[in-house]
Design a protein that fits this description.
The protein is of the alpha+beta class and 230 residues long. The protein contains nine helices and four strands; from the N terminus they run αββββαααααααα. Strand 1 and strand 2 form a beta hairpin. It is elongated. The termini are far apart.
Length: 230
């Protein structure tokens, strides 16, 4: 009696039912399920303790070469789906003592969330914004000098160094800080000259505040001790 090929099995399988296509080493099996629209999807089924779970591999591509090992733009051959399931199975088996596939997925999600949060924080905490937060801090202390500081930072950082000002503050290099300070001192306006007689704002804020890690200050801009009086 002739054995049906994987393609024939998929073609003849009823909708809504999971069919095991192959055993996956070192753990689990490859299953297929056809939906009511006739599209077939592959799943890797595995066990962890007393529980069984399925992980979606992808859509079946009936036009793919049966021997293809990688997915096409339309989906997977049975062989490619088996290989993809084997990759998941190997990771699951190697980490079975620490929770297997579910634990790996949770760790990946946690790592991705941390990366996303770090990216959002970096995008939010630009040098320009943190200079503005510093000025807000001066204003919250009732210091009129916040007006002069805003004007100086706008002229000597935001306008003079727009690309640097838009960078996440923690990514601005020591060389860039130094260049801005040199430029500031070489191009003092009358306002900046008067203001810098009390303290050098760029040197104080850029070299003291940010190099000490204040680039991760909270949303309120409250960085604790006023750098101008340090």
């Amino acid at each position: 009696m002739a054995t049906n090929t994987p393609g024939q099995i998929i073609q003849e399988m009823p909708a809504g039912k999971f069919i095991t296509m192959a055993k996956v080493m070192p753990s689990g099996s490859l299953q297929a399920r056809k939906d009511s629209a006739g599209a077939t999807r592959f799943y890797w089924r595995f066990s962890i303790g007393a529980k069984s779970e399925r992980v979606l591999i992808g859509v079946y591509d009936s036009a793919a070469s049966p021997k293809s090992l990688t997915p096409t733009s339309k989906g997977f051959s049975v062989t490619a789906a088996t290989r993809a399931a084997e990759g998941l199975a190997l990771r699951h088996y190697a980490n079975r003592e620490s929770g297997g596939h579910p634990a790996l997925v949770a760790a990946d999600r946690s790592a991705q969330a941390a990366q996303d949060e770090a990216r959002r924080s970096a995008e939010l905490n630009t040098l320009e914004r943190l200079l503005s937060l510093y000025c807000d801090y001066l204003q919250s202390l009732g210091r009129e000098s916040h007006k002069d500081a805003r004007s100086i930072f706008n002229l000597h950082v935001v306008q003079a160094w727009p690309e640097v000002a838009r960078l996440p503050a923690k990514e601005v290099s020591t060389e860039q800080f130094a260049d801005m300070i040199v430029d500031f001192r070489a191009n003092l306006t009358p306002l900046a000259l008067v203001f810098s007689s009390k303290f050098d704002p760029l040197n104080t804020v850029l070299c003291l505040t940010f190099r000490q890690g204040e680039s991760r200050s909270d949303q309120s801009g409250n960085t604790g001790k006023d750098p101008a009086t340090a």
